[in-house]
Structures are given as structure tokens and as C-alpha cells.
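ARCHIVE CARD
Drawer: 12
Card no.: 0347
Subject: one protein chain, sequence and derived structure
Cross-reference: see card 0346
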Amino acid sequence: MGNPGAGSAGPACRAVTTGPAGAVDSADLVRAVQRGDRLAASELLDLLTPYVARLCGPIALQDGPDATQEALIVILRGIGTLREPAALFGWARVIAVREAVRVARAASRAVPDPLDEVPARDNPQLAADVRDVLERLTPAHRAVLVLRDLEGFDEHAVSALLGVPESTVRTRLFRARRTFRKAWER
């Protein structure tokens, strides 16, 4: 996982400070956006877009770009309510996951396909196979699986991000892994 706060400051963003090698201080960038600096808002979008897309893609699957766009809109509209600018990426993560799950549920793809149609393990397109198996999980199960197993968050953090009890996270994770494993082994 790279540094989500790294980016470069352009000449238009003089309201923010830069650190070593021109890295933008994301907290300063947030404060500039909160003051109404439109150029800083553009830089904030440039900084957040890859991070938000990396979270939304595996959860919303083919609707990942839509979920990313929706999440970025919510982030920009709500940036004025962010009290602690240094918490930008944690705040954005919560919004991205919530929007990815919402978009995936809104799509008619939320109902899993029958598991007997999963491609064989020896298929040379392994990435496509994994995606195909992920598509068979519900958005809630994909979200838990991505946050826990791909992003590396513990159950407490996943619970906080999704707004569900830890016991629900454990149950969803168990079911998601079991369903994934069962589908993969066919």
C-alpha cells in the first residue's frame, strides 16, 4: 500500500505547504479547499481519485468507476464538515466503501450467479477468474473481504468503516471466504 497522501504541488496551489520533494501536505490542501480555493479542490481530487478508485473497484466491480465518482462527489460536497483535515484519508475511506456498497446494491448485479458456473482453476486468465468469483459475492461480502484480506484492516476497523458490529463482520467474512473458496474449488 503506497502513501496515499503523496502528490505534487502545482504552481496554482500556493495556499498549501509542500514537504520534501514537493509532496503536498494533505491537511493544508483540505484547509485550502475549505476556504473555497478551487485550484486546491482540483489538486485534492487528483490526490484522492486513485485511492478512492482502489477501494471502490473491487467492491462495486464493473460499477467501480461510478462508485468512485459518487464517492468523490460526496467527499467534495462534505469537505467543509471535515473537522480534522489530517484525517482526510480515513474519512474518504469510509465514504468510498459506503458508496461502493450502495452503488453495487443499486445495480441489479447484487444477486450472485449460480456457483456451478465458475471457471476451472487451471484457466490461464487467473485475474479474470478471481474477478468472476468476486462477482458472485454480495456487495456486503465483497466489502468485508476486500477490506480485511486485501486492504489488511482488522475486524474492529472494518466494523467501524461499515457501521456494523464486529460480530457481523466476522460472520460476513466467514461466509464470504467460504463462498469464495467453494466457488474457486469448482
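Annotation on reverse: The chain is about 60% helix and 0% strand. Confidence is low (pLDDT under 50) at residues 1-23, 109-121.
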